[in-house]
Amino acid sequence: MISRLFFALTCVAHVSILEDMTSVRKKILLVDDNAEFVTQATKLLRKLGVAKVLVADSGAEAIGMMKILVPDAVVLDMDMPDEDGFQTLTKMRANKRTAKVPVVLVGARDATEKDFQRCRGLDVAAEIRKPLKSRELDAALQDCAQSCGSERRRHMRVRYRGRVVVISGADVQVCEGVTLSEGGVLVKEDPPLPLKTPVDVIVTLRESTVQLPGHVIYHQDVHVPRSRKTASAMCIEFGKHPRGVKKALQDFVTSLAEE
After folding, report:
1. String of b and e for 83-121 (b: at least 16 CB within 10 Å)?
2. Does 158 score more than 90 pLDDT?
3. Is 230 exposed, middle or buried (0-12, 13-18, 19+ CB in 10 A)?
4. What would the pLDDT profile of 68-78 be if each residue is shown by its tens digit?
Protein backbone atom coordinates (compact mmCIF):
# COMPACT_ATOMS: atom_id res chain seq x y z
CA MET A 1 0.00 0.00 0.00
CA ILE A 2 2.79 2.38 0.91
CA SER A 3 4.60 1.58 -2.31
CA ARG A 4 1.52 2.34 -4.40
CA LEU A 5 0.92 5.57 -2.49
CA PHE A 6 4.49 6.68 -2.96
CA PHE A 7 4.72 5.99 -6.68
CA ALA A 8 1.36 7.69 -7.22
CA LEU A 9 2.82 10.95 -5.97
CA THR A 10 3.67 13.41 -8.72
CA CYS A 11 6.91 14.27 -7.09
CA VAL A 12 9.36 16.49 -8.85
CA ALA A 13 12.08 17.41 -6.39
CA HIS A 14 13.59 20.81 -6.71
CA VAL A 15 17.09 20.49 -5.34
CA SER A 16 19.76 23.09 -5.00
CA ILE A 17 22.88 23.49 -2.94
CA LEU A 18 22.55 25.56 0.18
CA GLU A 19 24.83 28.51 -0.08
CA ASP A 20 28.25 28.13 1.46
CA MET A 21 28.48 29.48 4.98
CA THR A 22 30.68 32.55 4.68
CA SER A 23 29.40 34.38 7.75
CA VAL A 24 29.11 33.07 11.28
CA ARG A 25 26.08 35.33 11.76
CA LYS A 26 23.80 33.32 9.51
CA LYS A 27 22.99 30.43 11.83
CA ILE A 28 24.13 30.04 15.44
CA LEU A 29 23.38 27.23 17.88
CA LEU A 30 22.88 28.43 21.46
CA VAL A 31 23.36 25.69 24.06
CA ASP A 32 22.22 26.43 27.62
CA ASP A 33 19.80 24.88 30.11
CA ASN A 34 18.71 28.22 31.63
CA ALA A 35 15.55 29.48 29.90
CA GLU A 36 16.00 33.06 31.12
CA PHE A 37 19.55 33.21 29.79
CA VAL A 38 18.46 31.69 26.46
CA THR A 39 15.82 34.41 26.04
CA GLN A 40 18.32 37.17 26.79
CA ALA A 41 21.07 35.70 24.61
CA THR A 42 18.71 35.11 21.68
CA LYS A 43 17.57 38.74 21.70
CA LEU A 44 21.15 39.94 21.90
CA LEU A 45 22.32 37.70 19.05
CA ARG A 46 19.52 38.93 16.82
CA LYS A 47 20.40 42.54 17.61
CA LEU A 48 23.94 41.72 16.51
CA GLY A 49 22.68 40.58 13.13
CA VAL A 50 22.37 36.82 13.56
CA ALA A 51 19.77 35.63 11.05
CA LYS A 52 18.77 32.40 12.80
CA VAL A 53 19.28 31.30 16.41
CA LEU A 54 18.80 27.60 17.10
CA VAL A 55 18.47 26.50 20.72
CA ALA A 56 19.41 23.30 22.57
CA ASP A 57 18.89 22.97 26.32
CA SER A 58 21.50 20.27 26.81
CA GLY A 59 24.73 19.05 25.33
CA ALA A 60 23.11 15.82 24.20
CA GLU A 61 20.38 17.70 22.33
CA ALA A 62 22.99 19.94 20.69
CA ILE A 63 24.98 16.94 19.44
CA GLY A 64 21.79 15.38 18.07
CA MET A 65 20.84 18.58 16.23
CA MET A 66 24.30 18.92 14.70
CA LYS A 67 24.02 15.47 13.13
CA ILE A 68 21.47 17.04 10.80
CA LEU A 69 22.17 20.75 10.68
CA VAL A 70 25.67 22.09 11.21
CA PRO A 71 25.64 25.69 12.53
CA ASP A 72 28.09 28.42 11.59
CA ALA A 73 29.06 28.83 15.24
CA VAL A 74 28.06 27.54 18.67
CA VAL A 75 27.56 29.59 21.84
CA LEU A 76 28.13 26.94 24.50
CA ASP A 77 27.50 27.12 28.25
CA MET A 78 30.26 25.55 30.34
CA ASP A 79 28.05 24.48 33.25
CA MET A 80 25.16 22.19 32.37
CA PRO A 81 23.80 19.10 34.15
CA ASP A 82 24.45 15.61 32.77
CA GLU A 83 26.79 16.77 29.99
CA ASP A 84 28.80 19.95 30.52
CA GLY A 85 30.40 22.21 27.94
CA PHE A 86 33.73 20.36 28.01
CA GLN A 87 32.05 17.01 27.24
CA THR A 88 29.91 18.53 24.49
CA LEU A 89 32.90 20.25 22.90
CA THR A 90 34.93 17.04 23.08
CA LYS A 91 32.22 15.22 21.09
CA MET A 92 32.07 18.06 18.56
CA ARG A 93 35.80 17.93 17.92
CA ALA A 94 35.71 14.14 17.54
CA ASN A 95 33.18 14.39 14.69
CA LYS A 96 34.54 15.46 11.31
CA ARG A 97 31.30 17.35 10.51
CA THR A 98 31.63 19.62 13.56
CA ALA A 99 35.37 19.48 14.21
CA LYS A 100 35.98 22.95 12.74
CA VAL A 101 32.81 24.74 13.89
CA PRO A 102 33.90 27.79 15.95
CA VAL A 103 32.73 27.83 19.57
CA VAL A 104 32.15 30.69 22.00
CA LEU A 105 32.52 29.29 25.49
CA VAL A 106 30.28 30.95 28.11
CA GLY A 107 31.27 30.74 31.76
CA ALA A 108 29.50 31.83 34.91
CA ARG A 109 30.14 35.31 36.34
CA ASP A 110 32.68 33.82 38.75
CA ALA A 111 34.32 31.41 36.27
CA THR A 112 38.07 31.20 36.86
CA GLU A 113 40.98 30.97 34.47
CA LYS A 114 41.32 27.33 35.47
CA ASP A 115 37.70 26.67 34.42
CA PHE A 116 38.36 27.99 30.91
CA GLN A 117 41.78 26.32 30.68
CA ARG A 118 40.14 22.88 30.64
CA CYS A 119 38.62 23.58 27.21
CA ARG A 120 41.41 25.52 25.52
CA GLY A 121 42.98 22.43 24.06
CA LEU A 122 39.75 21.90 22.11
CA ASP A 123 40.12 24.95 19.86
CA VAL A 124 37.82 27.51 21.47
CA ALA A 125 37.36 30.66 19.37
CA ALA A 126 36.36 32.97 22.26
CA GLU A 127 35.58 33.00 25.98
CA ILE A 128 33.04 35.24 27.71
CA ARG A 129 31.26 35.36 31.06
CA LYS A 130 27.66 35.84 32.10
CA PRO A 131 25.81 38.15 32.04
CA LEU A 132 26.36 38.70 28.34
CA LYS A 133 27.31 42.17 27.17
CA SER A 134 26.68 43.28 23.60
CA ARG A 135 30.22 44.48 22.93
CA GLU A 136 31.84 41.32 24.31
CA LEU A 137 29.49 39.01 22.39
CA ASP A 138 30.04 40.99 19.18
CA ALA A 139 33.82 40.64 19.62
CA ALA A 140 33.41 36.91 20.26
CA LEU A 141 31.50 36.50 16.99
CA GLN A 142 34.27 38.37 15.19
CA ASP A 143 36.77 35.94 16.71
CA CYS A 144 34.66 33.07 15.38
CA ALA A 145 34.77 34.56 11.88
CA GLN A 146 38.55 34.91 12.10
CA SER A 147 38.94 31.33 13.29
CA CYS A 148 37.20 30.21 10.09
CA GLY A 149 39.78 32.09 8.04
CA SER A 150 39.00 32.50 4.38
CA GLU A 151 38.07 28.84 3.94
CA ARG A 152 34.53 28.39 2.66
CA ARG A 153 32.86 25.62 4.62
CA ARG A 154 30.47 23.51 2.70
CA HIS A 155 28.18 21.05 4.45
CA MET A 156 26.59 18.14 2.64
CA ARG A 157 23.05 19.40 3.08
CA VAL A 158 20.83 20.22 0.13
CA ARG A 159 17.44 21.80 -0.37
CA TYR A 160 14.90 19.16 -1.22
CA ARG A 161 11.42 20.35 -2.23
CA GLY A 162 10.06 16.91 -3.08
CA ARG A 163 7.35 15.07 -1.21
CA VAL A 164 8.48 12.76 1.59
CA VAL A 165 6.31 9.95 2.97
CA VAL A 166 6.46 9.76 6.79
CA ILE A 167 4.97 6.62 8.39
CA SER A 168 4.16 6.56 12.10
CA GLY A 169 2.34 3.38 13.07
CA ALA A 170 -0.84 3.25 10.98
CA ASP A 171 -0.57 6.95 10.16
CA VAL A 172 0.86 7.85 6.74
CA GLN A 173 1.66 11.50 6.03
CA VAL A 174 2.86 13.01 2.77
CA CYS A 175 5.10 15.97 3.68
CA GLU A 176 6.97 18.58 1.68
CA GLY A 177 10.72 18.30 2.05
CA VAL A 178 12.86 21.26 3.10
CA THR A 179 16.42 19.90 3.35
CA LEU A 180 18.07 16.51 3.08
CA SER A 181 21.41 15.23 4.36
CA GLU A 182 23.06 11.89 4.96
CA GLY A 183 21.90 12.04 8.57
CA GLY A 184 18.26 13.01 8.19
CA VAL A 185 15.57 15.12 6.59
CA LEU A 186 13.67 18.29 7.48
CA VAL A 187 10.03 18.26 6.34
CA LYS A 188 7.08 20.64 6.65
CA GLU A 189 4.29 19.25 8.81
CA ASP A 190 1.60 21.10 10.80
CA PRO A 191 1.27 20.03 13.49
CA PRO A 192 4.60 18.18 13.66
CA LEU A 193 4.78 14.78 15.30
CA PRO A 194 5.89 14.76 18.96
CA LEU A 195 9.61 14.66 19.69
CA LYS A 196 11.16 11.17 19.77
CA THR A 197 8.32 9.69 17.68
CA PRO A 198 9.70 6.66 15.78
CA VAL A 199 8.95 6.81 12.06
CA ASP A 200 9.80 5.31 8.70
CA VAL A 201 10.63 7.71 5.88
CA ILE A 202 10.41 7.10 2.14
CA VAL A 203 12.57 9.36 0.00
CA THR A 204 13.13 9.50 -3.76
CA LEU A 205 16.76 9.26 -4.88
CA ARG A 206 16.40 10.28 -8.51
CA GLU A 207 14.70 7.29 -10.13
CA SER A 208 14.79 4.97 -7.11
CA THR A 209 13.39 5.15 -3.59
CA VAL A 210 14.68 4.22 -0.14
CA GLN A 211 12.86 3.59 3.10
CA LEU A 212 14.73 4.63 6.24
CA PRO A 213 13.91 4.28 9.94
CA GLY A 214 14.26 7.32 12.16
CA HIS A 215 12.76 9.49 14.87
CA VAL A 216 11.76 13.13 15.32
CA ILE A 217 14.54 15.07 17.06
CA TYR A 218 13.39 18.70 16.92
CA HIS A 219 10.78 21.14 15.61
CA GLN A 220 11.53 24.31 13.65
CA ASP A 221 9.67 27.10 11.87
CA VAL A 222 10.80 27.49 8.27
CA HIS A 223 10.36 30.38 5.86
CA VAL A 224 7.79 29.99 3.09
CA PRO A 225 9.39 31.12 -0.22
CA ARG A 226 8.08 34.33 -1.76
CA SER A 227 6.13 35.28 1.36
CA ARG A 228 6.62 36.56 4.89
CA LYS A 229 4.97 33.50 6.39
CA THR A 230 6.54 30.60 8.23
CA ALA A 231 5.53 26.95 8.36
CA SER A 232 5.97 24.29 11.02
CA ALA A 233 8.59 21.65 10.29
CA MET A 234 10.09 18.64 12.01
CA CYS A 235 13.56 17.19 11.69
CA ILE A 236 13.86 13.42 11.45
CA GLU A 237 17.18 11.77 12.23
CA PHE A 238 17.79 8.57 10.30
CA GLY A 239 18.56 5.45 12.29
CA LYS A 240 20.64 2.43 11.35
CA HIS A 241 19.91 1.00 7.94
CA PRO A 242 21.46 -1.53 5.53
CA ARG A 243 24.84 -0.62 4.06
CA GLY A 244 23.46 -0.51 0.53
CA VAL A 245 20.76 1.99 1.51
CA LYS A 246 23.29 4.15 3.34
CA LYS A 247 25.62 4.15 0.35
CA ALA A 248 22.79 5.10 -2.02
CA LEU A 249 21.83 8.02 0.23
CA GLN A 250 25.44 9.21 0.56
CA ASP A 251 25.97 9.06 -3.20
CA PHE A 252 22.73 10.95 -3.84
CA VAL A 253 23.52 13.79 -1.45
CA THR A 254 27.12 13.98 -2.65
CA SER A 255 26.07 14.13 -6.29
CA LEU A 256 23.64 16.96 -5.57
CA ALA A 257 26.27 18.91 -3.69
CA GLU A 258 28.67 18.58 -6.61
CA GLU A 259 26.21 19.70 -9.31
Report:
1. bbbbebbeebbeeebbeebbbbbbbeeebeeebbeebee
2. no
3. exposed
4. 888 999 999 99
Residues 6+ apart with CB under 8 A from 76: 31, 62, 85, 88, 89, 103, 104, 105, 106
Q: What is the DSSP letter of 21?
A: B
Would you state the CATH architecture of domain 2-17+156-258? Beta Barrel (2.40)
Q: What is the residue-wise DSSP string for 145-177?
A: HHHHTTPPB--SEEEE-SEEEEEETTEEEEEEE
pTM above 0.70, yes or no: no
**CATH code assigned to 27-148:** 3.40.50.2300
Question: Which residue would you say has higher pLDDT here, 7 or 163?
Answer: 163
∠ CA 181-100-90, nearest 5°, is 95
Element (H, E) at 36: helix 35-47
